[in-house]
Each structure stands twice: as structure tokens, then as C-alpha cells.
Amino acid sequence: MPRPSRAALLLAAALSFGVLLPAGAALAQVRLKDVVTIEGVRGNQLIGYGLVIGLQGTGDQLRNTPFTQQSLAAMLERMGINVADARVQTRNTAAVIVTATLPAFARQGTPIDVQVSSLGDAKSLNGGTLIVTPLMGADGEVYAVAQGPVVVGGFQAAGQAQSISSGVTTQGKVPGGGLVEREVPVNLRDFETIRLALRAPDFTTAVRIEEAINGRFGTGAATALDLGTVEMRVPPGFRDRLPNLVAQMESLTIRPETPARVVVDERTGTIVVGAQVRIDPVAITHGNLVIRVTESPIVSQPAPFSNGETTVVPRTQVEVDDQRGKRLVSLPRATTLKDVVDGLNALGLAPRDLISVLTALKAAGALHAELQFI
After folding, report:
1. What's the CA gap between 171 and 125, in Å, rounded?
2. Nearest residue to 369 via CA among 269, 271, 259
3. What is the bridge-based pairing of β-strands 93-102 and 44-53?
4. pLDDT for 12
5. What's residue 79's pLDDT?
6. Below-50 pLDDT ranges, the chain
7. How, if at all, do strands 311-313 and 298-300 pair?
8. Which pLDDT belongs to residue 27?
9. Cα angle for residues 319, 322, 326 (degrees, 5° grid)
């Protein structure tokens, strides 16, 4: 049988107590386009109000949502149908808020995905169709128009005595349902400098980006302004070919600096340990106190022809287990990620117990990392 590699042993050890470890993440070379964004090249948020029709009795109750009734009446009136004095009782319509993101450099006619969310008391948008809805930006101008069938990820099913649901049925998407009507003008020829914004601000990463760009385009081509911004001057030969300059810049690779951080998800018991985490020598013992209270009431019946009454006599049993079998474990100084994993594995704890140990290590000053709970 072939001997497993060190990376395989490390991953197996990590999964044994619920820690996910990106092996070798600190040494990974990453493309510049994956760690920075270009200032001014971004999407714009759009929002609109519309109606979803064609629902199977799962729409808004018009008596509880007057805005749905007013919107339905206004839509029909624009089509030449007057329902001002009619009492419409349909349950096949729902008022929704429609949101979308207008991508950078989107041209007229470009399809975009839109998100639809119920505004009233509709039970489900499954099977509905969004009718023409203008989408506006923060300036109040219409930049796109959305329409199309709504795709809902969840479902609901109910009978007379039981119901079941999965996911959220009051929101969905219209893939490609929005069409761009107005463009956001961006003239790349006006750019004399390009500012790169780091997705994870860090001084070391910013300096490495500056060195990588200067090594490719010449000394002085880029300057790190702060921990989150690197300014790059457009060389004269690229004034009319800025897309070519950005493409070459984005293909450069650097080694981003990763902070020493331990991320803990208490809900699922997941622990993610960063590659830069270090632990000082420390001794740890851990034990759980488990108390079980069991109720076993009995019924006391009186003798025949007596004046007694039937009563319920409570019976309570209390068990205490302090689990004293946990041993004292001494952890040496952990200078690598493998040392951290080996030391924590030596405790032999479940993920949720390990969370308590990590919190205590941080309080004692032995854990040199940021402990972040999500």
C-alpha cells in the first residue's frame, strides 16, 4: 500500500475535528485581478416596483394589501379597463420589489438577471410572471426594464393535517429578464492614472502589488498610497490602449499576505485555522459536566371502596457525569500550521469543545491570532 502524502495526512487530521485548512495558502501565487478592483469600474444598484401575475391562488390578499389593489387597478386602467368601482378579489397577483445590478460598461440591450421579492402577504411566487417593471438608479433615471417568468428555488406543499416547505418561496429570480435601456458613460481615454482597490486591505500586499507592477512596466509606474489603494500611472504608450494595459496588469501574480485568524462558526461547529496562526507553550485540560434529569411520574390508585383519589406521584432521577477521564495535555510552541493541527488533535476533543479551548487560549494570550466568530 502506498504511503499517504504529508498533505493528505494533514487534511485528514484537520477533518477529524472539524477544521478546514487551505494547505499552502500562504505560499500561493494569486493573479492581481483576484485581489484588486479598479476604482470607477463597478456596477450600479437598480430598484423597481412591479407586479407578478399568474399565481395559483398564492398571491396577495387585496383586502390586506391596498397597494397591490391600487397597482392592479392602475395597470388595467392603462390598458383601457376601468375597475375603479369593482371589488376585485383575485389571489393571483402579488406586489414585488425588483432589484438588479447594472454591470460596468453594459450596453443597450444587454440582458441582466433581476431579483424579485414579495412586498405583501403572498405565500409563494412560484409559477408567476413579472410584468414590465422599470428599474431606476439612485438618480431616479430608468436604466433597465425587467419582465419574464419568476424562478423560485423553494417549494411548499400542504394537506389538511400537515404541510412541508423548503427554502424561501416569496422571492425568486428572472434570469436574463432585465434589458439595459440607458448606459452609464465611462471614457477610458480620460484616465491618466488607475487606482487599484484591494479587496482585503493590507500594507504588505499593497507593497507587493507595487513591486510587481514596477517590475513589469518600469520603476515609478505604481505607488502604494495606503493599505487599501495602489495608484498606477498610465504609460504614454498605453493612452489609447488602456484595456491592453489593464489586461497585462491583471495577469501579474503576487503572494498576498494572509492575517493570523481563526474563524469559528458555532452553529455548525466549523473551525477554519489560518496558515499564520501560532500557539505558545501551554498546558490544557478539559472536561465536561453533564447533568441528566429524568422524569418518570407514576399513577397512585386508591383501594376499592375507599375515599381516596387517583393522584400522579412525581419521580425524578438526577445523574451527574463530570467526565474526569480527560487528561492534562502539554502543547509545545507551534511554529507551523502542522504544529498547530497536531497540538489541537492531541486534545482529542469534539469541534464544539475545541471552540471553548480556542477561546480560553486567546484569553490566556497563548493564541497569536484573531479569533472571529460568524
Report:
1. 7
2. 259
3. antiparallel
4. 39
5. 85
6. 1-26, 325
7. antiparallel
8. 53
9. 145
CATH architecture of 29-41+187-254: 2-Layer Sandwich (3.30)
- Distant-in-sequence, close-in-space partners of 15: CB < 8 Å, separation ≥ 6: none
Residue 282: the pLDDT is 73
DSSP labels, 164-220: EEES-SSEEEEEEEEEE-S-----GGG-SEEEEEESS--HHHHHHHHHHHHHHH-TT
pLDDT score, position 65: 85
Q: Counting Cβ atoms within 10 Å, is residue 294 exposed (0-12), middle (13-18) or buried (19+)? A: exposed
| Angle of helix 203-217 versus helix 242-250 axis, rounded to 10 | 120
Domain ranges of the chain: 29-41+187-254, 44-180, 261-373
Amino acid at 288: N
Output the pLDDT for position 129: 94
> What single string gives the DSSP state of each residue in 20-59?
E--TTGGG--EEGGGTEEETT---EEEEEEEEEE--SS-S
Q: Quick check: helix, strand or coil at residue 101? A: strand
pLDDT score recorded for residue 219? 87
Q: What's the CA gap between 42 and 32, in Å, rounded?
A: 17
SS3 17: coil
pLDDT at 158 (0 to 100): 67
pLDDT of residue 101: 94
